[in-house]
Amino acid sequence: MSTATHHPSLLLVDDDATLRERLARAFRERGWDVTTAGGYDEALVAARRESPEYAVVDLRMPGRSGLELVRDLLAVDASTRVVVLTGYGSIATTVDAIRLGAVNYLPKPADVDDLLAAFARASGEPSVGVPESFEPPSLARAEWEHIHRVLADSGGNISEAARKLGIHRRSLQRKLQKYPPSR
User: Fold this and answer.
1) HEC profile for the chain?
2) What is the tens place of the pLDDT at every residue in 86-117?
3) 4-aspartylphosphate (modified residue): where (predicted)?
């Protein structure tokens, strides 16, 4: 009688090779079977070859976005549990990621323990309530997040984003030079 140990499979997708490999090594040290990808196309090829049980997907990558990847990974296998990881968190993209089927959403920097906790939290009943410590973003922070979302939706084209926002291109460039306001 053989006692085969199950190693959960994980697809780790991030365009930052250093972060991707650091996280992959940490997951492997914990007994996970990890496949890595640097972008949308590479990730879909890997998922079609062998569908992962879990996936960690960076939101912003060159080319197609992490949100598109979430949608398409779940089209390959609806049982894949996806956590979205991003350095550009906003309420709107969180809602989009969850609506598309992600089980959780984490801001960078996140380590393997944060990701494991995100998967564990997601295995319970979904919580729709607002956490007790929730503080709504300031108006300046909400504006900053909206501007960056429109810019991302415009593929980084400042002129197109300015047109969509209804402001002058130079005004948008000035706003983009500012640091994000604190919450």
Assistant:
1) CCCCCCCCEEEEECCCHHHHHHHHHHHHHCCCEEEEECCHHHHHHHHHHCCCCEEEEECCCCCCCHHHHHHHHHHHCCCCEEEEEECCCCHHHHHHHHHCCCCEEEECCCCHHHHHHHHHHHCCCCCCCCCCCCCCCCHHHHHHHHHHHHHHHCCCCHHHHHHHHCCCHHHHHHHHHCCCCCC
2) 776 666 777 788 888 999 888 877 889 889 98
3) 58
Any residues with CB less than 8 A from the CB of 66 and at least 6 apart, and which?
A: 13, 57, 58, 59, 60, 84, 86, 97
- CA 104 vs CA 83, 84, 96, 119: distances in Å: 5, 6, 11, 7
d(CA 89, CA 9) in angstroms, rounded, equals: 26
Report how far residue 55's alpha carbon sits from residue 23's, in angstroms, rounded to the nearest whole number. 12
Q: Contact 84/59 with Cβ under 8 angstroms?
A: yes
Give the predicted TM-score (pTM) of the model: 0.66
Residue 80 is predicted with a pLDDT of 94
Domains of the chain as residue ranges with CATH = 9-122 (3.40.50.2300), 139-177 (1.10.10.60)
CB 67 within 8 A of CB 93: yes
| Alpha carbons 162 and 168: distance in angstroms, whole number | 6
